[in-house]
Amino acid sequence: MKVEKYRVPSKGKVSLKDYDPGESDLFDGNKKDGAEALVKLNKQIETLQEQLYAEGKHKLLIVLQATDTGGKDGTIRAVFEGVNPQGVKVASFKVPTAVELAHDYLWRIHAHVPGKGEIVIFNRSHYEDVLAVRVHNLVPEKVWSKRYEHINEFERILTDEGTTILKFFLHIDQEEQAERLLARIDDPTKQWKFSPGDLEERKLWKDYEAAFEDMVNKTSTDYAPWYVVPSNKKWYRNLVIAQIVRDALEGFKMGYPQPAENLEQYRKLLLGMVKPKVKQASEADAAKITVETAE
Ligand code: AMP
Ligand code: MG
Fold this sequence. Notes:
By secondary structure, the protein is α/β, with parallel strands linked by helices. The protein folds into two domains: 249 residues, P-loop containing nucleotide triphosphate hydrolases (Rossmann fold); 33 residues. It is globular. The C terminus is likely disordered. Adenosine monophosphate (AMP) binds next to helix 5.
């Protein structure tokens, strides 16, 4: 899939209206085919993540932003299915605590960026400080308007120091959100996810749209690009993101670290310490064959 289609160029201005949240154009197949393709990507990501961890060289930061019900949790579950939890961390950013608010807005963020050999997924992020904060006027415009530049510089520090950054805006439309909120109420196991506050936020849809549009336009850079991912169809969203993550990991051109020298010598040593299971098995097989031929 030519996923560059969803990458927001670093120069120029895109309009979110030009991105259809309901499309699945790059994939030639239905939902079932998509699920099969995802399993293959999951297996590749699993192996690549193991190499990333074993090599301990690269750092990958994945940022997820979306409106309520946009699918951030579902994406994390689906894209990283089967991956060893060792070496992958999720950092979720909620309404800041009093201590967090007493610091600059990047303070709580920086502490969670990936170290060598790690993948970190941000479930919401520093971008809330130009989204929720802007829409709710939590700080004056002259304060939040400077943050795009700060964020670009912050992400430049991270990438200059060896972090790879991928940012995904999960794009759904308002009707899809209403359906998802309704589905939460209708399913007793999902009711806990419904917050009446989500309906209040929904009233601010237009303001959020403007804030998301500014966010992707002002902070998609060559070194930390935004992707606007069509997300009405969950299977397609998962597929697009899994492919971009797989491609980024493949781009690291990793392998497994060099093994110790003289492995054969240690192998012989260890063989002397284990019961000869192989021999027992072949004896049993031989006995079986004898019985079979005797019959
Ligand atoms: P949820 O992800 O559904 O648990 O909700 C977390 C809430 O925290 C959302 O309403 C976010 O908008 C809000 N939030 C996250 N970060 C910030 C921030 N820096 N300032 C204000 N609200 C925030
Ligand atoms: Mg919520």
